[in-house]
Structures are given as C-alpha cells and as structure tokens.
Design brief:
Helix content of chain A is 45%, strand content 12%. In chain A, a hairpin with a 2-residue loop joins β1 and β2. Chain A contains 5 helices and 2 strands; from the N terminus they run ββααααα. In chain A, strands 1-2 form a two-stranded antiparallel sheet. The longest helix of chain B is centred in the first third of the chain and has 19 residues. The chains are: A alpha+beta, B alpha+beta. Chains A and B meet through β1, β2, α1 and α2 of A and α1, β7, β8 and β9 of B.
Chain lengths: 104, 201
Amino acid sequence: MLLQCAYVKKKHLCATRRFQITNSTAKSFGFTDFSPTGQRAAAATMLNYYDAVQPAMQGDFQQAAWNMFPWASMPDSPLPGNHMSMAAAQGIFQNALNTLPECQ
Amino acid sequence: MAEGDTMRHKSRLGLLLAVTMYGATGHTQQGEKPLQREQSSFSMEQEIVPIEKPVTLPGGALQALEKDTDVSSCMENANVSSGQLPSSWFVGSQIHLEGPGEMDLIVLPRNLGATQSMHPAPNACFFGPYTAKFWVLRMTREGYELALSVHTHGLGVLKTRWKGYRDIETAISSLNGSTTTLYRFDGQHYKSYSARSESVR
C-alpha cells in the first residue's frame, strides 16, 4: 500500500506519494491501483483530463504547464502557494525527455 | 520516499488538517441566543471529515452555482444543458454566516465515484489531485448568491467577523509547503484578505 497517511486528531489524512492524489480524487476518477505503475497511469489520466498532454506532444510546454494548474506548484497556478518558474518546469520536462527510458 | 521526507510531509498534512479543524464548533454571537451547533470545518476528503448534516441543494442554490464559470464549464463538458444542473453533483451544509435569521450554505462536490476504473465521474471536473471546488452561497432577499468559489483542500468558517459576516479560512498544501488564506466579506462577496505560507524545504 503506497498511500501516505498522517494521523492527526484521530483523523487520517492520506495522499499518494508521487502525485499527491487523495483518496477522494482517486475515487472520483476511478483509480484503484496504487502501485508505482498505477500511480503513473493515474497521473496520465488526470493530465489527459486537464488537456495537458496534447499541448506537450505538440511542443507547447507552456500551455501544458498552464493546464496542469490543479497541481499548485506548477507555474502560474491560480492556487495559492509557491509556484516553480516556467523555466524550471521546462528544465525538468526536458531533463525527463532526455533521460527517461520510455522517452527515448 | 526517505523517512525524513515522510515526516516532513506528515507535518505538513498535520498543519493542513489543524487549520481545517480550526473553529470546529458552532458559534455564539454576543447578546444572541446560542445557535444549535453547526459544522464549520470542511475537507475535500469527505470520508475523513464528512458532512455531518448533508442537505440537498434547493433550486435557487443550483441557479446560483450555474453562474460560476467552473460549474458552467463542467456542465458543458458533461453535456448538461443550462438549467439542468444535477443536484446530485453536490452536497451542502447549512451555516449561519451573518446571524440566526438567514441560512447560508457551504457546498462541496459530492463524491459520486467513477462509473468504472479510470473513467471519471461526471463531476470529476470539480476535483484536483488534492483539492476540490468549494462554494459558499449567501442567502439574500433575492435568493442565494454565490459569495465565494475556491479550489482548496480544507475550509473553515471562523468566529471572527468582517462587515457582519464570519471570516473564512482555506488551507492547501503542495510539495512546496502549506498556504492558508483568509477571506473576508466585502459587502457582497468574500475576497482574499491575507495569506500565509509555510515552506517545508
């Protein structure tokens, strides 16, 4: 079980490790596999749902990043919190493209 | 994930829930009769912090929600016609924001559950990875009005007031830290008044 939970005031608060997907969201989207592979598939489903994949595939990373706004740390997200710069996000994306085996 | 990261994450989540839990009981205004205890803390994780007395939204409340761009966008994506917003998409909780004379609503998306694995529920558009849409509807003489629409993880209605209405605080946590935002009533709507962030790195 890869769910990460905090036990506070007799309540459990859980979020998955990799993408912070809560139990409520997992239920709403039909995610039941919390293995590393399942978590990646869940994130891919959400990115598709938010129309973030297609712009990235077309080379428009900025639009892809904007569409990923539900993750508050993404550039220019309207959600409160600290946001990474677009350049930093672009760098992470490019590094993944260059190094991840599935991107070769 | 390293043990240290796990502990920091737990600490962050603890802070988040602590804020969510803030002001968890009903309130009593000076010189007023005590109101029946009403829920004032809410979380997008309703299985952890359930709506204690869920109410089905009346038609006027649904009409007010339809004016929210996120709701209308979600309706469009789900091929729901104007005026046909399903009440089953939402769950409400009654609250007194101003005084005992009116009955306002805190509204959250109802967790309908996906119809099948990896196929989102029709109202999944109201859920982010760790946030959900929250709406605050204010009852006026003309009916319900949308007073606040916000993506957050937790929402608490405080005992402090501004222009007669109780303040509202939201909390959200990301990998970079936690942020709590204080909203105050400006006479018509709730507006962001202040925010404080706590970095965990």
